[in-house]
Amino acid sequence: MDQGSIARILKQVSGGEDEIQQLQKALLDYLDENTETDASLVFSRKFYIAQWFRDTTMETEKAIKSQKDEDSSEGTHHAKDVETTGQIMHRAESRKKFLRSIIKTAPSQFSTLKMNSDTVDYEDACLIVRYLASMRPFAQSFDIYLTQ
Known about the structure:
cohesin loader activity
């Protein structure tokens, strides 16, 4: 991954969100901006929103499950794990809130909400997609699958 380009995109896309949310917004801006030239980008935009919402929901469910598992086996790390679970839940809720706001916004309104529409070009969009895909669980465990 080209971390320099990712850092450049993050600097250009201003916002108080976390890094993943900023990249998601930049990619959605790019897709929304180019829907006139390629109709399939409308589907891609909806697919990404749905997939990110699903990923966030799965992350929340895993955090709740791990908290329940920790409750059954009381240990010295319990307080630390609960704090981590709380942070995961808070981050997941903020991401869900962001995605809901994107869903509720009509495409014509979304165009007017864009901060920097010229921030992301095709190459940057491809880089963002690769970077976000590398954060998914399957991509992170791909080396394990290959070695087995």
